[in-house]
UniProtKB/TrEMBL annotation:
Requisite cofactors: heme b
One GO process term, biological-process aspect: respiratory electron transport chain
Subcellular location field: Cell membrane
Family: Belongs to the cytochrome b561 family.
Gene Ontology annotations for the cellular component aspect, listed alphabetically: plasma membrane
The organism's taxonomic lineage, starting at the top: Bacteria, Pseudomonadati, Pseudomonadota, Gammaproteobacteria, Cellvibrionales
Superkingdom, natural source: Bacteria
Protein name: Cytochrome b
Organism of origin: Gammaproteobacteria bacterium LSUCC0057
Domain Cytochrome b561 bacterial/Ni-hydrogenase, chain residue ranges per copy: 9-183
The entry's keywords: Cell membrane, Electron transport, Heme, Iron, Membrane, Metal-binding, Transmembrane, Transmembrane helix, Transport
Sequence intervals crossing the membrane: 12-32, 38-58, 88-112, 149-170
Membrane topology label: Multi-pass membrane protein
Chief subcellular location: membrane
């Protein structure tokens, strides 16, 4: 696979920052949202998740097209491989998270809205007013489980990624972290 040359482009740095802030914010909001008993909290989470999915998809396509940032050849091979594995983990998990949420939302029977715009109609249960009929209960459960597991995978990946960046900056004192800020 190709690798992006040094310095990193502005588009790479901006997409990295937007996705990082978006994913971390959505993870935090998702955990808080579980404690709220307000349907609007879920609708906002879904709308923001759909929007973030589009940005993540652009970032993933760009990453596959131009490759990963070049690793410092002075770093040990095991460290470079670990970093690349964590980058792949973050890319795949950041895609799986909103996709599993989308699966969960569309299979729930509650329909799908994006900031109030109906994208998929809801399936009211005629026998129980105010309730819905799930489109597919098995896919709903699969989406829910994937969404939950992926949250913890993302958290682990983010901790590893941040830990590596901080190690490069404060222990190795190299330019790895500065590249993402300044290009």
């Amino acid at each position: 696979m190709k690798s992006e040359s040094v310095p990193l482009s502005a588009a790479t740095r901006w997409l990295h920052g937007i996705v990082a802030v978006g994913v971390i914010s959505m993870l935090a909001y998702g955990f808080v949202m579980e404690q709220l008993e307000f349907d609007g909290a879920v609708l906002l989470h879904i709308s923001c998740g759909l929007t973030l999915l589009l940005v993540i998809a652009v970032r993933a396509m760009r990453r596959l097209q131009i490759g990963w940032p070049q690793a410092n050849p002075d770093h040990p091979l095991a460290q470079r491989r670990t970093a690349r594995a964590v980058q792949w983990l973050l890319l795949l998990a950041s895609l799986l998270m909103p996709l599993s949420g989308l699966l969960m939302a569309t299979m729930s029977g509650w329909g799908l809205q994006w900031f109030g715009v109906e994208l998929m109609a809801w399936s009211p249960d005629p026998a129980n007013p105010g309730e819905v009929i799930p489109v597919n209960a098995l896919l709903l459960e699969i989406g829910h489980e994937l969404h939950e597991i992926t949250a913890f995978v993302l958290i682990a990946g983010i901790v590893l990624h941040l830990g590596g960046a901080l190690k490069h900056h404060f222990v190795d004192r190299d330019d790895t972290l500065r590249r993402i800020w300044r290009g």
